[in-house]
Structure to design on (708 residues):
């Protein structure tokens, strides 16, 4: 099974180790992992900013680079949803591209969804020990139904104890460019999220989307919390 | 109501800086959310009910003119007069003319968002008619110098008990009370004489039933019945999209409205009012007028935003919105706050007058997840963003940045170079620390939180190095 990894622009820039963790997990599940080297961004920032032309241009680029594999996996519900849910509509006016978008869409998966529902990985390499609470990122949760998948994977790690926080499904306030366009509102929403995380009192907060995690980590540290680790689910599942 | 949505950012900043408001928002938070979550489990098939309600509303919008004609025929046959208003100014002209025809000096009002759209109270006062708000929340706002509501069903949700206690003591000139039943009694005592003395009652309408020519009112305070039955004249003001075909459809929508709004299985009062007082009726108005209002709605029919007209004004979207819950409703600057307002305000008042509203959303999707008629609110906000781009209404810097970024992202070599530089710049900014405290390229991020430092090299570089 040839699986193309969509690294995501945030992982590429900020946390390469998440990309390597995803590769490790996919390989542990027996996949042949390919990282198409010309990949950049799925185009979601342009799509959400209302620039359909730019979003369609990047959608076509991404489809061309990723359509030749059995599956496409991204360590992000947000990026996976863009390809899975939005590409076909975005290219609806172009019969040839629409067909290619639809053909790709059904083969795109968020990482934990893929590990649980497609390859059914049951021997995780991760050695994380400690208590964690899980933040459900909005797009993965509401559009792709990512809820039980990361929890089922965490439950397989013998030394991980999951403790749910209040409002696990509440938005962290990131919202892509919203975090910069309305920085004060965004940070105030993040403060509520972080209060819930701190109330859970776990060693780490874990999530599946790096945008949310950067927002949460930035707010926790500004609030003076130097101890709660902020980790991507791939790091926890694959890490030392 | 004058629109202030163009000042959204300043209004939101003021809301965030208002410690009292922030405390009140924290206190109110979750009450409607938790109750709704329980109330919807009472329905055997909540999802199926939502789907059916969506279908009813879509069916009406498909042939809105025909359903409105049928409503007009049936309402007229039962003695009502149906008037049409193109905009807020025409609402005011109609109501003032009706008041003058019937010698009205005082008008009691139950809540009507259309009257807020029109700024009706000012027009009535200017014409020598005293408008008296009788919904407790609206009454509190009216005696507080006509303050704007912050929520469509709980207009004073942004106020604390202490604030209301102070206001009542000051305006009513009675000893200050902090017991809620006592405060309510005090308001009732004031309102009772208005109820008995008004010649005209003005209400909104939750639904118009085409087959019977009736208006359905969903209320919790009983003021709605006083307003609609005691005065000799009753004026209903509502939007043209509120019509539904049958009473059967009404019962379907009533399964969803109170549950979605306040988490009640049913509101304290549901009134279905039909026609004028007949000879053997013991109460009811002698004269009944319907003012059916366009105010931007007709232009939305048949267009890309038609789904928005399904809205039944429950407020679930704002109750569940992280942005609304953080800044409150008044920051949105017009009648409808939260996600519904982020779509309705630009549609009704002009896209250029509310540029921030569709942008001020994380697109978390919780609003559409709870909407009883499945309005795809995030998608509609995104479409409004697209229109802003098409009409070149975005700031030049944003447009250029987006174009430059998209061009780079479409050119892998350039993109690799750009990220190579960016990651080093960020790492240099962090200077050995695991965070950046002031990010010059995005100061809005670091005003309220740190920006975590990058690892230092891109995945692309590290992966290429590993393969070699």
């Amino acid at each position: 099974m040839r699986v193309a990894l969509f690294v995501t622009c945030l992982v590429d820039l900020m946390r390469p180790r998440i990309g390597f963790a995803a590769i490790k997990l996919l390989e542990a599940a027996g996949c042949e992992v390919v990282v198409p080297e010309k990949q950049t961004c799925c185009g979601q920032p342009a799509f959400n900013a209302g620039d359909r032309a730019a979003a369609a241009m990047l959608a076509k680029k991404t489809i061309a680079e990723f359509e030749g594999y059995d599956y496409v996996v991204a360590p992000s519900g947000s990026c996976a949803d863009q390809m899975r849910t939005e590409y076909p509509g975005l290219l609806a006016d172009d019969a040839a591209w629409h067909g290619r978008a639809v053909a790709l869409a059904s083969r795109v998966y968020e990482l934990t969804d893929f590990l649980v529902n497609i390859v059914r990985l049951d021997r995780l390499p991760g050695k994380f020990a400690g208590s964690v609470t899980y933040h459900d990122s909005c797009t993965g949760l509401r559009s792709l139904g990512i809820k039980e998948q990361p929890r089922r994977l965490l439950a397989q790690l013998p030394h991980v104890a999951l403790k749910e926080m209040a409002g696990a499904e509440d938005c962290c306030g990131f919202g892509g460019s919203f975090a910069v366009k309305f920085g004060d509102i965004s940070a105030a929403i993040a403060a509520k999220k972080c209060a819930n995380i701190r109330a859970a009192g776990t060693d780490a907060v874990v999530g599946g989307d790096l945008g949310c995690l950067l927002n949460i980590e930035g707010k926790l540290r500004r609030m003076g919390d130097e101890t709660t680790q902020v980790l991507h689910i791939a790091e926890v599942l694959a890490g030392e | 109501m004058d629109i202030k949505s163009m000042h959204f950012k300043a209004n939101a900043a003021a809301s965030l800086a208002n410690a009292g408001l922030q405390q009140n928002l924290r206190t109110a938070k979750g009450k409607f959310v938790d109750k709704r979550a329980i109330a919807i489990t009472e329905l055997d098939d909540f999802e199926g009910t939502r789907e059916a309600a969506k279908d009813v509303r879509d069916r009406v919008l498909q042939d809105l003119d025909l359903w409105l004609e049928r409503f007009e025929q049936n309402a007229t046959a039962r003695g009502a007069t149906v008037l049409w208003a193109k905009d807020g100014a025409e609402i005011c002209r109609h109501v003032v003319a009706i008041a003058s025809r019937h010698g009205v000096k005082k008008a009691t009002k139950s809540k009507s968002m259309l009257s807020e759209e029109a700024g009706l109270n000012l027009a009535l006062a200017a014409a020598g008619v005293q408008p008296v708000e009788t919904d407790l929340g609206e009454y509190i706002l009216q005696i507080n110098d006509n303050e704007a509501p912050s929520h469509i069903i709980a207009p004073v949700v942004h106020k604390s008990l202490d604030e209301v206690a102070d206001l009542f003591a000051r305006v009513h000139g009675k000893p200050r009370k902090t017991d809620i039943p006592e405060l309510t009694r005090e308001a009732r005592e004031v309102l009772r004489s208005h109820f008995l003395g008004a010649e005209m009652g003005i209400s909104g309408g939750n639904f118009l039933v085409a087959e019977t020519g009736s208006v359905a009112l969903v209320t919790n305070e009983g003021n709605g019945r006083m307003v609609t039955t005691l005065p000799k004249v009753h004026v209903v003001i509502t939007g043209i999209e509120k019509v539904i075909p049958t009473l059967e459809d009404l019962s379907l929508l009533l399964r969803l409205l109170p549950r979605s709004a306040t988490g009640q299985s049913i509101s304290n009062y549901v009134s279905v009012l039909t026609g004028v007082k007949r000879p053997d009726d013991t109460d009811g108005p002698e004269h009944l007028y319907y003012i059916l209002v366009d105010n931007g709605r007709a232009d939305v029919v048949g267009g890309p935003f038609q789904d928005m007209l399904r809205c039944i004004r429950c407020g679930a979207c704002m109750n569940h919105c992280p942005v609304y819950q953080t800044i409150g409703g008044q920051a949105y600057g017009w009648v409808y706050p939260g996600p519904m307002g982020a779509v309705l305000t630009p549609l009704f008042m002009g896209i250029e007058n509310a540029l921030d509203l569709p942008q001020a959303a994380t697109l978390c999707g919780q609003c559409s997840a709870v909407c009883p008629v499945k309005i795809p609110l995030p998608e509609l906000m995104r479409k409004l963003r697209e229109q802003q781009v098409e009409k070149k209404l975005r700031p030049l810097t944003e447009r250029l940045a987006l174009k430059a970024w998209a061009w780079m992202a479409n050119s892998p070599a350039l993109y690799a170079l750009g990220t190579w530089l960016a990651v080093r710049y960020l790492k240099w900014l962090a200077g050995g620390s695991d965070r950046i405290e002031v990010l010059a390229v995005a100061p809005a991020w670091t005003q309220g939180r740190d920006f975590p430092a990058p690892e230092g090299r891109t995945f692309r570089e590290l992966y290429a190095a590993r393969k070699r």
